[in-house]
Amino acid sequence: xxxxxxxxxxxxxxxxxxxxxxxxxxxxxxxxxxxxxxxxxxxxxxxxxxxxxxxxxxxxxxxxxxxxxxxxxxxxxxxxxxxxxxxxxxxxxxxxxxxxxx
Amino acid sequence: xxxxxxxxxxxxxxxxxxxxxxxxxxxxxxxxxxxxxxxxxxxxxxxxxxxxxxxxxxxxxxxxxxxxxxxxxxxxxxxxxxxxxxxxxxxxxxxxxxxxxx
Lengths: 102, 102
What we know:
The structure is a homodimer. By secondary structure, the first copy, chain A, is of the alpha+beta class. Chain A contains three helices and four strands; from the N terminus they run βαββααβ. The first copy, chain A, has one domain (7-94): 2-Layer Sandwich (Alpha-Beta Plaits), CATH 3.30.70. In chain A, a hairpin with a 3-residue loop joins β2 (40-47) and β3 (51-57). The relative contact order of chain A is 0.30.
């Protein structure tokens, strides 16, 4: 993934409730669904004590469309009801980036 | 942590080389050191296949100061030499945020 700045990042941080309760399957499904959305640029995810998922988007319109996607709305509802004890969403403009590869 | 937007996030994503080689101790030390820097607002971190560390800062000046901190510079050098096979740094303006707590 090598988009040119500026583009957008959505930082989703969360803590899980106990037990899977269908979470892993949903997470995989949402990741695949996001990849097919207009303006999707990439997604990175890791979970230890806290879960961090960062998705990358072309612009705010792409983020707004993905937020309102029917299947994603259902996952958001289930997330609040079952899967997360806490989450936070940050919508960010990526202004600058650099990388290193060995 | 409840800073008001806008503020800045630095998204540091990385993949590790094999073996610890002093990495865990350095990571803990850098986290503690960052917490004492001017303009530091918070830090969140998780690693599975990929590592994601997001640090939050008041402004670009705070990020520039932290990047140039002597001990942090040494850790960056060792990171390139020993600990990381790949990393990417994104400097982002947090424009909007919302959260949920059960």
